[in-house]
Amino acid sequence: MASKLKQLQSQACRASKFVTENGTAYYKQLLDQNKQYIQDPPTVEKCNELSKQLFYTRLASIPGRTESFWKELDYVKHMWKNRKELAVEDVSIAALFGLECFAWFCAGEIVGRGFTFTGYYV
Question: Is pTM, for the whole model, over 0.90?
Answer without folding.
Answer: no
